[in-house]
C-alpha cells in the first residue's frame, strides 16, 4: 500500500546518474542536450527497468513511473505484478476498475490477495462491510474473461471461506499458471469436499483461521482434524511444494491437528509455518511426535524459513544433527526451539513473539543471541514489571546482537520511561536502520511521538525509519493490542542546526494504493 504524508519519496537521482554514466559514452554531452526538467524521461528504458528492479520501496517505483507516460508504460509489469486489496473499499473500487476494461493492467497481475471486511487494528474506524459474494463474482468474471491468465498466486482473506465454492474451480480452469492458493476460515466448519482441495501440483498453500474480538463467545463446532482431502492434495498430488502455511490465531479456541504434516516429503520446501496447531491429537502425548517431527525437519534440508507453534501439545525442543537445515535463515518459535537449531551462526531473522519473556528469560535469550553472529533482524515480546531495571535489560539485549539493522520490540506490562531505552540505545554499538517500539503508556501523559523519534535518531545516526505504538492498557495477545496511536516516521538527514529531520508518514487513499511490489517472504508482524 502506498503510504504518503506530507512527504514524497524522492526519485533515485543518484542511482540514475550512476547507471547512465556506466551505459552512456559521453555523460556530459547527454546532460547538455537534456535540461534538468526532462532528461530523466529520455533515459534508455533498459536502464529504467534495471533501476526499478533494484528499488526496495514501492513508493520509489511509483515515483519513478510517474516521471513520464513512457516510463509508466514500461514499469506497468512491475507495478501490477502483485496486487493486495487490503480492505473493503479497495476491493470494491479496484475490482470495478479492472472489470471496466483495464485489460492492459490485469494481464500483468501474477499475485492477487483479496481482503474484504478486513479489520486493520491500527485504525480507530470500524470496517465498512461489503458483500463478499459480490467480490467473489467479480473475481470469477475477471477469470472467465481471460484477464487473469498469468495469475500464479491467489489468497482469499475474507471473514469466511467463499460460499460460492465454484470460485476455486473457475480459477483452476481459467488460470493455467496458478500454483499457489489459500484461504482464511471463519467460524463455520470446513467443507471436506471443497474445490479448494482439488488442485494438483501446488507450489504454495495457505490455510488460516482468525478469531475477531466479538467472536469470543461464538460457538465453534469441534474440528480436531483437517479434512483428508487437504492432506491428499498436499502429500500425494503436490510433490513440488515450496511453501506451506497452516495458521491459527492465538485467540482462537479452534486447534487444528497437523500431525499428518510429518508424512509429507517435499524436497523443494523452503517456507514452513505452523501456527498454534497441535501435534498430539486426542489422548496422545506430544512426546510421541517429537521423533517423527525432528526426522521430518532433518529430511527437508532446503528450508529457509521456519515458524513453529507455542502450544503445550507441540514438541518443546528441537534436537537435530549438526548438518541439518543448512539453509535456514529465518526462524520464529519459542526460546527452547531456538536453542536446538543446528546453524545458529547463519540465522539472519529471529522472531520470539509467541510468548512474553520475563527479565530472567531475557538474560537466557541474550546468551543465545551472542552465538547468532549473522542476526540482522529481531522481533521480541517482553513482559517486564515496574520494578525491573529496564535500562539494564535493553542494554544487555542490544549488546548481545550488535549486527542488528532492524529491531521490533514490544513491552506489555507496566509503563516505563522512554529515556531508559534511548540511553541504552545511545550507549550500544548497534547501527539500526529501522526500529519499532510497542509499549504501555500512562493515560494522563500522552507522549510527543515526533520528539521521541528525534531523540532516537540523535542517539543513532543510522536510524531511518521508526514506528511507535502505544496503548493505555496491557494486553494478552499481540494480535489484539488496543492501540491508542500508531505513528510511522522517516528520518531524512539533518537540519542546518544538526538536529535530525523527522517526518511522519500518513496513509491516504490513492487510486494506486493497491500496488504491491513482489517481495520475499517475511515473518508476520504484530500489526
UniProtKB/TrEMBL annotation:
Record-linked InterPro entries? LRR_dom_sf
The organism sits in which domain of life? Eukaryota
Name of the protein in question = F-box domain-containing protein
